[in-house]
Backbone:
C-alpha cells in the first residue's frame, strides 16, 4: 500500500508548525496552561517535563502500576484531558486524566492494567499494530470522547486518525507508540438499553517522505 500523502495532511503540518510555535532550531513550544485547558485541537500539545512526569505518576498511582512501568505515549490536546499508555513491567492505560489550570493532575476516566512484563508482538517497519480504543470522560471532566492508542513501526514518521466528524487528527508519536483522542458526545446506553456504540475511525501511518505505509480500520 503506497500512495502519496493527502494535501490536507501536508497543510496540517504547516499549520501545526505555525500555530504551535514549532521551530526547526528550537523544537515544539511547551504548552501553556491556556493551551491545556483551552479548546480541543487536532494536533498534540508538548507538555513540560515536570508536568509530563506528574501525568505519568498519576496514571501509575490510579492504575496501581509498579514504579518500573514505562510510559509508552502521552497525548494531550486541550479540554484538560491527557490519555496515557504504560508498558514494560506492569502495563496499562489511563483513558482520561484531568490536568487543571494550576497543573494539578487527577484521575477521571477508566483504563485497564496487566501484571507482569508486557510481551509485545514483533512489528514490521511499515506496520500499525495493537490498536486500542478508549473512552474519554468521567470525574470532573466536561469533555467526552474517544481515544486510540497503538504501535507504529520504525519507518512510520507520522500517524493520522480520521473520523467522520473531526478534521484529520495528528497523533502523538513516541517510543514506537501513537495516541490521539477526539471529543464526541457518547450516549449512555449502559442501563439495559443496549451496548455503547463504537466510533468510526481510520488510522494511517506515513513515512518521512509522506508516503502512506500502513492503514488500520476496525
Residues:
Amino acid at each position: 500500500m503506497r500512495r502519496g500523502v493527502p494535501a490536507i495532511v501536508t497543510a496540517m503540518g504547516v499549520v501545526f508548525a505555525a500555530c504551535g510555535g514549532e521551530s526547526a532550531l528550537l523544537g515544539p513550544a511547551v504548552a501553556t496552561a491556556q493551551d491545556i485547558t483551552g479548546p480541543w485541537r487536532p494536533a498534540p500539545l508538548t507538555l513540560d517535563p515536570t508536568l509530563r512526569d506528574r501525568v505519568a505518576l498519576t496514571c501509575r498511582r490510579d492504575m496501581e502500576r509498579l514504579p518500573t512501568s514505562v510510559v509508552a505515549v502521552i497525548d494531550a490536546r486541550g479540554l484538560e484531558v491527557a490519555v496515557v499508555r504504560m508498558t514494560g513491567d506492569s502495563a496499562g492505560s489511563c483513558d482520561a486524566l484531568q490536568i487543571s489550570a494550576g497543573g494539578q493532575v487527577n484521575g477521571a476516566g477508566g483504563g485497564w492494567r496487566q501484571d507482569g512484563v508486557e510481551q509485545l508482538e514483533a512489528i514490521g517497519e511499515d506496520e500499525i499494530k495493537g490498536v486500542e480504543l478508549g473512552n474519554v470522560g468521567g470525574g470532573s471532566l466536561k469533555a467526552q470522547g474517544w481515544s486510540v492508542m497503538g504501535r507504529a513501526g520504525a519507518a512510520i514518521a507520522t500517524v493520522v486518525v480520521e473520523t467522520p466528524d473531526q478534521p484529520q487528527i495528528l497523533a502523538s508519536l513516541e517510543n514506537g507508540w501513537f495516541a490521539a483522542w477526539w471529543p464526541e458526545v457518547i450516549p449512555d446506553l449502559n442501563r439495559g438499553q443496549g451496548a455503547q456504540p463504537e466510533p468510526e475511525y481510520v488510522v494511517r501511518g506515513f513515512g518521512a517522505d509522506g508516503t502512506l505505509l500502513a492503514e488500520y480500520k476496525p
Remarks:
- The longest strand covers residues 81-99.
- The CA atoms of residues 75 and 83 lie 5 Å apart.
- The radius of gyration is 17 Å.
- The chain is about 15% helix and 35% strand.
